[in-house]
Design a protein that fits this description.
Oligomer: single chain
Shape: globular
Number of helices: 1
Strand content: over 45%
């Protein structure tokens, strides 16, 4: 019975290794010993030395011996991180770390354990390790079962710039489930050298044409994106909300790597009586060398007016890219993404054409497409219309050939409004807390804003977590460098992961400001009481 309890204790403790535990908050009491913080992020230079510490407190009774052991990190396909043998990790750093091998403590005593990291010359990228804090078994017979009390995830981020060091690859997809609620399972591997959050979406384009169905890359129940460690593979299920008709689809997986960097992969899948994924990987690569100089244009068109809109594309890479252009309808998703497709609906009197329909963009060159927007003299717009100039391209293909493989998919928004369109009106729709369990702290906050006006709105703002006493704990800036656009009739969601907090009352406050608006800032707040109990002495 005692051995069984120890095994259950070990399994429960593994759940403590959440990658986003707050670096300033202590870990939980695991039956006699508590440790804090449980996550330390270290920034160090090659050849440098970092010195830090963590706290250990004996919360039980009597004198105990605590062992400290260095372990590497392994990541399961579910995303869970578990310790593995030193030297077995893809990018092992246990040989760089120095700490105490053991400590002896009495009940109620607190000790500070030194932690030293010596980084060798030539290191770069992300390295990870665990310090396992283990309560030594009192009985020799129990030594066969490891009694894991708590763990600290020591993550080293080495400041060395390396071209191409950040990379995620989609190794395969599988479409399964049923037609009413299909799910696309994707396998994503981190082939770079930096720990990377997985953000993005997947699009299912029906072979018959039309708007694709879209699903976001899932986040954890805490609201944080899934993080993939170098060399590791994670499997994620992207569920589509709407029923799909049987037939062939092209699945486009788009992974956001930040700072304008994106990795894409394209697959053929089918949906019928039996749903199966295709093994054919059309192509996937980093799309960082092609971008639009301007991605949104606002036009006011009275009856009989016409306007030419320049859409400039810059290629900062070393490979020529062939682009083809089409005019399509646009649907704005909740996270601000623009989905292009043909709806079959037309606006009387309005025509949009783009020329040329294909163009080669050479290395370090800028290409120009022109969209001609015309409003017939006999008609006038009754409401704002959003169209898009969609550009798809290949680095090694000809758009006139059958089976041309698309590696680049981007577009510029055309917001076309009548003279009486009115002004933009962006306001807060809701501010919600993400709480995976009523007994746990909220893991994130979701702010939704909407534009009910006739023109595109642009906003900036903040989401702040603070104590009710006014002490700020965490802040997320919305539109730090550029104003965030919100199309007419569209909504945007902004997600802020919340750290683990100790006992007390807390408030999440949101504020947005609309550009060129006479209306003042909009506010929203949400209150919660922490459900976490912190061991005495670790506050």
């Amino acid at each position: 019975m005692k051995a069984l309890l120890l095994v259950l204790w070990f399994i429960a403790a593994i759940a403590l290794l959440a990658p986003y535990a707050c670096a300033q908050e202590p870990g939980p009491d695991m039956g006699g010993v508590a440790v804090g913080p449980t996550f330390i992020e270290i920034d160090i230079a090659p050849g440098g030395t970092w010195q830090g510490e963590f706290a250990v407190i004996a919360t039980g009774q009597g004198r105990v011996v605590i062992d400290l052991e260095l372990k590497d990190l392994f990541q399961k396909t579910s995303g869970a991180k578990i310790p593995t043998d030193s030297g077995a990790g893809v990018r092992s750093a246990t040989g760089w770390i120095e700490t105490l091998p053991e400590i002896t403590m009495s009940g109620g005593e607190r000790q500070t354990v030194p932690l030293v990291v010596k980084c060798p010359e030539g290191a770069f990228g992300s390295y990870s390790a665990f310090v396992l804090v283990k309560l030594r078994p009192e009985e020799p017979a129990a030594a066969m079962v490891t009694q894991l009390i708590a763990a600290i995830n020591v993550e080293l981020l080495i400041r060395v710039r390396s071209s191409g060091s950040l990379q995620l690859d989609v190794e395969g997809v599988e479409l399964h489930g049923n037609a009413r609620s299909p799910t696309l399972t994707i396998d994503v591997r981190n082939t770079g050298v930096w720990v990377t959050d997985v953000k993005g979406d997947v699009l299912l384009y029906p072979e018959a044409g039309g708007f694709p169905e879209r699903a976001e890359i899932p986040v954890r129940t805490t609201g944080h994106p899934m993080a993939i460690y170098p060399g590791q593979l994670v499997r994620m299920d992207c569920t589509f909300a709407r029923q799909l008709p049987p037939g062939a689809y092209t699945a486009l997986v788009r992974l956001d790597l930040g700072r304008g960097r994106e990795s894409r992969a394209q697959f053929l899948v089918s949906l019928g009586d039996r749903i199966a994924g295709s093994d054919r990987d059309l192509r996937g690569e980093l799309g960082t060398d092609l971008w639009l100089e301007e991605s949104m244009f606002e036009l006011t068109l009275p009856s009989g007016a016409a306007r030419s809109v320049p859409v400039r594309v810059r290629n900062t890479g070393d490979t020529s890219i062939v682009l083809k252009a089409t005019v399509e309808d646009v649907r704005m998703e909740s996270d601000g993404a623009w989905t292009f497709g043909q709806s079959g609906d037309s606006v009387p009197g309005l025509s949009v054409e783009v020329s040329p329909d294909s163009l080669e963009v050479g290395p370090k060159r800028t290409a120009l497409f022109r969209a001609m927007v015309k409003m017939e003299r006999v008609e006038t717009l009754e409401s704002t219309v959003v169209k898009g100039v969609r550009l798809v391209g290949s680095a090694d293909g000809d758009p006139s050939q059958e089976g041309w493989e698309t590696l680049y998919d981007m577009g510029a928004l055309l917001v076309i409004a009548p003279p009486t369109r009115g002004e933009a009106n962006v306001d807060i729709v809701s501010l919600k807390l993400i709480r995976s369990d009523p007994e746990l702290n909220p893991g994130g906050a979701v702010l939704t804003v909407g534009n009910t006006g006739g023109a595109a709105g642009h906003v900036k703002g903040t989401i702040v977590l603070k104590r009710t006493t006014g002490q700020a704990i965490a802040t997320m800036t919305i539109g730090k460098d550029n104003w965030v656009p919100v199309a007419p009739g569209g909504k945007r969601e902004f997600r802020m992961p919340l750290p683990v907090v100790d006992e007390g009352d807390f408030i999440v406050e949101a504020e947005i400001v609309q550009k060129d608006s006479s209306v003042g800032p909009r506010y929203a707040d949400a209150l919660f009481t922490s459900a976490t109990v912190t061991p005495e002495g670790l506050r």
